[in-house]
Amino acid sequence: MGDGRERYSRTDEKEQTSDTFAATSPDRESAAPPVDVATGMPRREFLKRTTIVGGGLAVWQGLLRGEPAAAVEQSPTVPGTVGPTVAVRLRVNGSDHQLRVEPRMTLLDALRDELSLTGTKKTCDRGECGACTVHVEGRRILSCMTLAAMQDGKRITTIEGLARNGHLHPVQAAFIEHDGFQCGFCTSGQIMSGVAVIEEAKKGWPSAATTNVRRKLTLADLSDVEIRERMSGNLCRCACYPNIVAAIAQAARRG
Length: 255
Hints:
This protein is α+β, with helices and mostly antiparallel strands.
């Protein structure tokens, strides 16, 4: 008798559990689609409407400006662009270049990709290593941190433009003499910064290592400490720093 009552009790529990699950489980066919709380409409319908309205506004603004559809989508004059372009005139190493580039293109990418001047290296692409150093209007800058469009009409010098009439720049010759490189990847940026260091000392510009800022700095004051401080923005993973400092010091002594 006890076994029968236990069997019937278990059967009743299963039936009650099945009924409860059926009552609380959502029916996939009859379940309502999710509703956006803010608008009170189904989310799919909300997304459709916002997409249609946004696309219509973009087309309407293009028509108001009178821009042809081809110009808005992509400029056919620059392969690989995905947006509008701007005209830029760059005077690089004594030669004028007329370019059409995207407004977001950096000077580094313009030099390497548009003018094929690959001596300027692209390493960190965030202004930390100094390998992309070039001179703009006689001052060194990091070409990965400036836009090409901002240099319109300016005079730019890269590592390819240092030599004159087949003769190396004194800093280039000093780097070879003192073996101021190993893998060579950072060398172009090191040399460009080394040239700038000497020019800055000639102009009397002090640095954080200058002991007396009231007295005008000269090339004779360009000590190893000064050179290391002024070259601190150029990294060398091969750790050729002693040779690099010696090369710049020798070039400075030679004037």
